[in-house]
Specification:
By secondary structure, the chain is of the alpha+beta class. The chain is built from nine helices and 13 strands.
Length: 291
């Protein structure tokens, strides 16, 4: 999970669109004042370019115009400087079964894509656990039944504006590394932030299981959090729910409105009044010509 901290122009991003803006559209040379032929807007295969432009138009970031029978696109607004910081949360309920957790945390620290990295666990945290984790990683203990968070160790700030190292294949006595320059890290940070902003901070819906509930003992039903009565804790529907779960009982999902919860408890706006949205793809403007 990723937390995006608001930057100086966060309000402008809120007004722009509630959806993820395609990274390729943000990184394109398309500007605000002058429309460009859609075929020259992105440096990629025409089919991929059409997909990106379609998504950018749907999000309201691109607008379509026609000149001499050809389709042109321009931005509806400048892309704002809205990202104030990123904090990554690595979830590991049981620290006694670490798996690839240590490798992932070492990668997080060496790459320094996030300003802070926090390990969230339900386990009791011992000194031995802390010694096995990279020093900059923060450790939080979350009590799902009470809804309480204990900060066992605060996270150190990482150097996100300088080059980092991505850890690759690991073999006995050897780890492949790949340098990542500061510009590439900035691009990756923007992509992560855009995805997090569009995806939201609640699951899209609750599990289709008779054991599922909205909220739980420590939460209100309108929290829209997926709670499992069989596991007696909050769950990740994408990873833990479904027919593979021994406690699964097919049923309609409990009623919940994650978007309403997000809008009420965060600056996110589901229907901004800012840039005009064009709910149509490029094909909507076709006149029979292939251009």
């Amino acid at each position: 999970m990723v937390e995006v901290r608001p930057g100086p122009a966060f309000d402008a991003r809120v007004e722009l669109t509630p959806d993820t803006i395609p990274p390729a559209a943000v990184e394109s040379d398309v500007g605000v004042g002058r429309a460009r032929d859609w075929r020259d807007a992105l440096d990629c295969h025409p089919e991929r370019a059409r997909e990106v432009l379609d998504a950018a138009v749907e999000a309201g970031f691109f607008a379509v115009e026609r000149h001499d029978g050809r389709r042109y696109v321009r931005r509806t607004a400048r892309y704002p400087d809205w990202i104030g910081g990123l904090r990554a949360f690595e979830n590991k309920p049981d620290l006694d079964r670490a798996g690839d957790l240590q490798c992932q945390l070492r990668t997080d620290v060496s790459l320094a894509l996030f300003d802070e990295v926090v390990l969230v666990t339900g386990s009791y945290v011992t000194g031995a656990h802390l010694n096995r984790l990279p020093d900059p990683v923060g450790v939080w203990r979350f009590d799902a039944e009470a809804g309480d968070v204990e900060v066992v160790r605060a996270a150190d700030s990482l150097s996100t504006e300088v080059p980092g190292l991505a850890l690759g294949d690991r073999r006995p006595g050897r780890v492949d590394v790949e340098p990542v320059d500061a510009d590439e890290k900035a691009r990756l940070r923007r992509r992560v932030a855009e995805r997090a902003y569009g995806k939201g901070w609640r699951p899209d819906g609750l599990p289709d299981c008779g054991r599922a509930a909205a909220g739980g003992p420590a939460f209100q039903p309108d929290d829209a959090l997926p709670y499992c009565d069989w596991k007696n804790r909050l769950v990740d529907p994408a990873r833990e729910c479904g027919q593979a779960c021994a406690g699964y009982e097919p049923a309609d999902p409990p009623p919940a409105d994650p978007e309403a919860v997000r809008a009420a408890r965060s600056p996110w706006e589901p229907a901004p009044a800012g840039a005009a949205r064009r709910q149509a793809g490029l094909d909507r403007y076709a006149t029979g010509d292939p251009d």
